[in-house]
Write a structure and sequence with these properties.
The structure is a single chain. The model has no long low-confidence stretch (mean pLDDT 88). The strands form 4 sheets. Strands 11, 12, 13, 14, 15, 16, 17 and 18 form an 8-stranded mixed β-sheet that branches. The chain has 449 residues and is of the alpha/beta class. Helices cover 33% and strands 18% of the residues.
Length: 449
């Protein structure tokens, strides 16, 4: 039977200071997760399972290194988090797994059902691929060398979830323990083979079969590192990709290439991992604000509706507005639309800005009020968004009359790349990464990736 690694999120040192995680209701995410983790460890040990608790003073990166330096092939690991949202009504538990891995998805369902079976008062937010997270990927799921899941136990910002975390810790711990135990049993065959041997898989790149085969390792598709150049990806300076030496060849986990604008799909019938590079669609343009978009109005509509069934009820022409207004100013409408999806939660809003303000990008007013700017129509709101993007990305004059209330306050041309909006448009230093994560999902939805 493999061992179990348990990590309580946050509590370590990040960027030179202690990271408490989310803070709400007089407590911190780190504190609550450490309490819960300790109970889970106790419950697992009463079942005669070997458990390793990750030290609390490690950073997120150090946590992964700590696990990888001790892990063996049949071990598993779970990291527990408490989520937080701007609205205190948002609540529930979920589990993230590495995208495209059906085996890990089943493991995630097992762990989540263990928790909800003991604490049915927690709403079920389902299991989700890590590509649905805010950053588009979760390093804990991807960089650990063993099977890994990330659980969000509840929302610390919600009073009901917080009460469950604090008053029913043991029930939560027992439920999670039961889920982990079932996962561990499913992950460990009765007679593990002592010889390392992995099934071969086929590789398809941009519709063409690749002559060399990959390997299926712990349920994940791995590909030879020498084919990465064909996808125009330079990973020579990236140290945190998972690399495996097998058959005297270095392999990397295929799903890790998704961070480099490569889509990954799995065809179980033919045991083929299918890779498609967006650089073949729009070379050099994926992150440039002043560039051409690639999606149609219908593709934008489908993507928006798939993420919010009611999105087009109030703003049925929004995809059309983004294509038309962005094209006039030379702005990439795909990027602008993805930013809108991030800022509004796919038109759910839920922040200080209300739908009737027609403010789709969190634009502030000239007076600096908390409520943000308002615009007389959806088209004018989109126009202001596009103009603000152009202010950051270009020195060229506006084609249409200025409607962006803060256009004149922007240092023109300071952010030609969407990543340079981080810390400028938003104080979030991962802001650009979150926009491109949505952009990749848009291109996957439109079969451009």
């Amino acid at each position: 039977m493999g061992r179990i690694f348990i990590s309580a999120a946050h509590g370590g040192t990040e960027a030179g200071r202690n990271d408490p995680g989310a803070i709400a209701g007089g407590t911190t995410e780190a504190k609550e997760m450490i309490f819960l983790r300790d109970l889970i460890v106790t419950e697992l040990r009463t079942r005669n399972l070997e458990v390793l608790a990750v030290p609390d003073d490690l950073s997120a990166a150090q946590t992964i290194v700590w696990i990888n330096s001790r892990a063996r092939s049949l071990d598993i690991t779970l990291e527990i988090h408490a989520d937080a949202a701007s609205s205190p009504s948002v609540r529930g538990a979920s589990v993230f797994y590495i995208a495209g891995n059906d085996q890990r998805k089943k493991n995630a369902e097992t762990v989540l059902m263990g928790l909800l079976g003991r604490v049915p008062q927690l709403p079920n937010r389902g299991v989700k691929p890590d590509t649905d997270s805010g950053l588009g990927s979760l390093q804990f799921c991807r960089q650990t060398k063993i099977a890994a899941l990330l659980m969000q136990v509840g929302f610390i910002s919600n009073p009901e979830d917080r009460a469950l975390l604090q008053n029913r810790r043991r029930d939560l711990a027992i439920g999670i323990t039961e889920g982990i135990t079932a996962w561990n049993q499913a992950n460990n065959p009765d007679q593990p083979t002592p010889v390392v041997s992995y099934p071969n898989i086929n590789i398809n790149i941009n519709g063409q079969n690749y002559p060399e085969q990959g390997a299926l390792i712990n349920g994940n598709a791995y590909i030879p590192i020498d084919l990465v150049d064909r996808l125009r990806v330079d990973i020579t300076k990236v140290a945190n990709l998972v690399r495996v030496n097998y058959r005297q060849i270095v392999y990397i986990k295929a799903v890790d290439l998704r961070n480099y604008n490569v889509s990954i799909a799995w065809d179980s019938a033919t045991r083929t991992v299918k890779l498609r590079s967006i650089l073949a669609v729009c070379p050099g343009q994926i992150e440039q604000i002043i560039s051409n978009g690639n999606t149609s109005e219908l593709e934008l509509q489908i993507f928006l509706k798939n993420n919010n069934e009611a999105a087009l009820t109030q703003f049925p022409e929004l995809p059309k507005f983004y294509r038309e207004e962005a094209t006039l100013e030379g702005v990439n409408h795909d990027l602008a639309f993805s930013q809108m999806c991030l800022e509004t939660g796919f038109l759910r809003f839920g922040t200080d800005i209300q739908p009737q303000q027609n403010n789709f990008a969190g634009l502030g007013g000239v007076g600096g009020g908390a409520e943000g700017a308002s615009f007389p129509s959806g088209r004018i709101g989109v126009r202001a968004h596009i103009q603000h993007l152009k202010a950051y990305a270009s020195l060229e004059p506006l084609v249409q009359q200025e409607v962006d209330p803060r256009f004149r306050f922007v240092t023109r041309g300071v952010a030609p790349s969407v990543h340079q909006l981080s810390g400028r448009w938003s104080a979030d230093l991962d802001y650009g990464t979150k926009i491109t994560a949505i952009l990749r999902r848009l291109y996957e939805s439109a079969n451009l990736l």
